[in-house]
Structure formats: structure tokens, C-alpha cells
Amino acid sequence: MGKGIRNGNGGRTNDRRARGKTGAASGAATRRHPVRDVIAAALAVALAAGAGYAVGGFSIGSGESSSERCLNDARLDIVGQPQTASYTDDFTARGTKLTKAEAGPYYEQAVNQSWQKIDDAMLAATGGDLPAMRSAGASAADAIDGTIETLLSHTWPAEVDNAVEQIARDYADLRGYMRYMASAVDEDAGGNTMMLEFYSFSKADVYLRGKLGLDAPRPHTMPLEIRSVEDIGVYDASTDGDGDADKAALTGKRVVRVTVRSRVPAVATEISLKFALRSSTGRTVDSVWGTSERIALAKGQSAVVDVPLEPTLAKSGMGLQLRGLAASSGHDVDHNMDIADDYARTVVPLSDFRLK
Fold this sequence. Notes:
- This protein is an alpha+beta fold.
- It is 35% helix and 19% strand.
- It contains ten helices and nine strands.
- It has helices at 34-51, 71-79, 100-124, 130-151, 161-182, 188-194, 203-212, 245-248, 341-344, 348-351, and strands spanning 54-55, 58-59, 224-234, 254-262, 270-278, 284-292, 302-309, 319-329, 333-338.
- The radius of gyration is 23 Å and the shape is globular.
């Protein structure tokens, strides 16, 4: 299994704090509010000077030689960062041993007690509402405490005991990110958290469910719900008649029109979708994306995203697999989300879609 963090129901993530924008292909991972960043930078410099920190490798302050720190390190002292589980932390289950017949329902009870709170926090992270994000993060962290305690309050059948230990550790990692959100000083904490690959299933969870005869894990709610997908063929702006410059740029491209409904708990000002264009045999031919900009999309409202394909690559019978989502909200903070293959297969409108 790869390195990273798993979500409570799901996936191991890579801690990539500065990933580029999903879908839109350019720009920084987050567009920070300029006034807020000036204040943060000023505080960082003031703290750095007082402590003899280093800026750009040069010491300022007392002049005494010590471990050098850059401006970004000083900023992290202000905004914080997630505290995840240490390799020395003990996640050994103790207590009376569960039978295999008891273990399945007990496991479901353990994970279900935090599933909704985690789901709420994941959506709140995309909304740009700092108080709501803090509250949801705190509630999720408390619920995860209960899940971990339940998992470790009994010993498990030998065939799943290692999986339970890994799952408990993964929950502890996730709890660190929820606490990070709960104590956030700005909305970037939500954007940084959603860069993690929350939308994938845990191998340990899937393994345990298979051994105990449980149903597949329930996927968490994505902030953008794909409602329909239509191949409209090669686009010709002259027949559209609305004079939209963005649509004019699509002329000559094979276009797939995707309708999405927003679940972002705020007004989204830009949304992006990233897909893999896949051959009839499942081979990825190209990575494609569509973006809808300069919008005001409230929760529950729908929007159309046109996804252009190169006509020379787009062939009849090919399909699309969702690879990523992005939404901007709040003070223009970007929230970028990778979608793993196992989660992508739960997007029903794409499962039977094929190019004409």
C-alpha cells in the first residue's frame, strides 16, 4: 500500500500541500486573499525577527547561529498544519474477542458513527465559510474519536486484526486533518485539506469487508454531482448564435456536455471537471477537462460544463472516467479534489456513456 492518509471510509492520500489546479491546468493551488496574506506575512516577519528566524537563508534578529527557518516556516507557525498519527502511536485493539459473526455488524457500527460527520466536514471544507468549516471539523474529529475507541475496544478475528489496526491509524490521521480545520485561521485550511485524495476507498477497509462478508463501502458525497452527459459532436459556434467567446473557442472540437449540480455549501464562482478519455478496452488515451468560469452557482443549482476533445483522438465507443473536481468559493479559494478509479466507478451517468 502507498504512503499517505486514508479517509474514514476510504482512501489513502498523498500529502501534497501545493498541488496544481485540477481541471483548469494552471494557477497556484489556492488563490489567497491579498489583504489576509499581507497581514499573515507581516506577522510572520515580526515573529521571525523576534525569534531570530531566517529569511531566504539569512539570519535576522539576534544573529546567534541556530537552525535556520524560512518565511514559509514562520507562516506555518501562525496558520498551523495537520498533526497526524506517529509510527510510535499504539493502535492495538484490546478487550473481549469478537467472533466473526459479531465482527461484521460491530465494524459497521464503528464506522457509521462518524461517517456523516466526516461527510459534512468534507463538504464544509469546500464552502469558504470559516466558522462553518471550523464547526464541522470539530464535530468530525469528535465523531472519529468515537470510531477509534469502538474499533479498539474489542479484539478481532485473526484474519482481520491487522486491517483493523491500519484502519484505526488511518482514522487518527484523518482526525488530525479535521482538527486542523477546526482550528483554522483562514479558509486555505479547507482548500489544503481537499487537495488530499479523500475520494478513494481504503484497501484495508475493502479487505476487511471482504473477509467479514460486508457490503462495499459507502462513497462520500462529492461537492459536484454529475447529472447527465451528452456527446454533442463537433462544435460549430456559428450555429449557436449567442456570441459567447468561450464557446467560440470550442469550434472544431468534439464536445461532451456535462450537467452538474452543486453541493458546495456556498456560491461557487468557478467549477472544473477533469476526465480520462478511455478507449473501448479501458486504455487512457488523453486527459481532458472542462471549466465553467465567472459564474454564481448556489448549492442545489445546476450548470453545464463543456468538455472539448481532440477530434483526432475521440473515437466512437470511447468513454470518460472522472479524475478530478475543482470549485472556487468564499474569498476565491480553490478546492481541488482527485477522484480515484474506485470512486469514479460510482458515478452512474458515466458508467454507460460512450461517444457516438
